[in-house]
Amino acid sequence: MAVLVTGGAGYIGSHMVWALIDAGEEVVVLDRLSTGFRWAVAPEARFYEGDIADRALLSAIFAENRIDAIVHFAGSIIVPESVADPLSYYENNTVKSRALIAAAVEAKVPHFVFSSTAAVYGTPESAEPVTETAALRPESPYGTSKLMTEIMLRDTAAAHDFTYTALRYFNVAGADPRGRTGQSTAGATHLIKVASQAALGKRAGMDVYGTDYPTPDGTCVRDYIHVTDLADAHLKALQRMRAGGGSIVANCGYGRGFSVLEVLDQVKAVSGRDFPVNIAGRRPGDAVSIVANPAVAMREFGWTPKHDDLAFIVRTALDWEDHLGKRNML
Q1: Transmembrane region positions (predicted)?
Q2: Which is the catalytic residue, given 11, 90, 142, 169?
Q3: Is there a contact between 304 and 232 (Cβ–Cβ < 8 Å)?
């Protein structure tokens, strides 16, 4: 059997493809290459270029490959952009996911792993690490678009022979420790990516959006998870469903948070380089502080993070950014 990875040429998706191949899986990738790269797809994977809402293409993929699971990464992810252009996020993240889910049901694909987000929680009421039973109050169209897809998956699983796992990501960062792939998208807004570019002189400096939040240093606090650990969580979630496990929602994070300024200090320390930081106003849609309680993932699929170390996350991000610079010079 094969696993279909949507968005498999993108940042997290390309890491997932490698994780599946390393585990001996047959992999099929579907990506329209709007933000991903064909070179980022592992050569062992079978690649289709196209959109996840193209029903004719999906029918061909299911006819040509024995797909027993879909791991769905394709989508738009920038919170402020979603506030400025909400309808595009509902189209790309919700409407197109609905088309993919419908195609999966029609093709009798039994397992579905969904790339969701901690943005479904908004800013939690408590400072304690957030659990999956917390109130769902997204503060951006991005978070709402993901929550709507979770709801569609829940209802589809209740009506059909269909099992899903929705993984709510916290802040994903870093790169493959073996240097095979990493965050390569031009204009990416991930904090550690941007800070790595500043440290390596690819940017003149960077902005910090708001220093007046109710946190110890006034900047937003996030739980940063290494992308390789995240890919491993997807793999274990898939293995659990194949073994008969039911549908589930699980957080993916480490259970501790770092502020924006703490992350920048770490990037400067690991790189050994300083860079200018400009203090700007708050961005719309940013939650104040959110940290994961990952107990469900650890209990239900035996997920054990291997890279819970901010310095390691930063080091792999810097190494990949340096690799990209050399690649672009060739």
Answers
A1: none
A2: 142
A3: no
For CATH 3.40.50.720, list the domain ranges present in the chain. 2-174+224-252
pLDDT of 189 reads 87
- The helix/strand/coil state of 2 is strand
φ, ψ of residue 259 to 5 degrees: the values are: -80, 165
Question: What CATH number does domain 2-174+224-252 carry, 3.50.40.10, 3.40.50.720, 3.40.50.2300, 3.20.20.60?
Answer: 3.40.50.720
End-to-end CA distance of the chain: 38
CATH topology of domain 191-221+255-292+300-329: UDP-galactose 4-epimerase; domain 1 (3.90.25)
pLDDT of residue 125: 85
Question: For the sheet containing 258-259, what is the strand order?
Answer: 258-259, 221-222, 289-290
The ranges of the chain annotated as CATH 3.90.25.10 are 191-221+255-292+300-329
254 is catalytic: no
* Cα 115 to Cα 15, 63, 71, 316, distances in angstroms: 13, 25, 8, 22
Looking at residue 23, the DSSP 8-state letter turns out to be T
Give me 302's structure tokens.
């035996």
3-state SS assignment for residue 264: helix
Q: How far is CA 181 from CA 20, 36, 270, 311, 313, in A?
A: 14, 11, 20, 19, 14
* Residue 258 main-chain phi, psi, to 5 deg: -130, 140
Q: Are strands 221-222 and 258-259 parallel, antiparallel or unpaired?
A: antiparallel
Distance CA 106, CA 228 (A): 32
Number of H helices, E strands in the chain: 11, 14
- Structural contact between residues 72 and 125, judged by C-beta atoms closer than 8 angstroms: no
Asked if 129 and 255 count as a contact pair (C-beta separation under 8 A), the reply is: yes
| Partners of 163 in beta bridges | 111
Q: 329 or 145: which carries more pLDDT confidence? A: 145
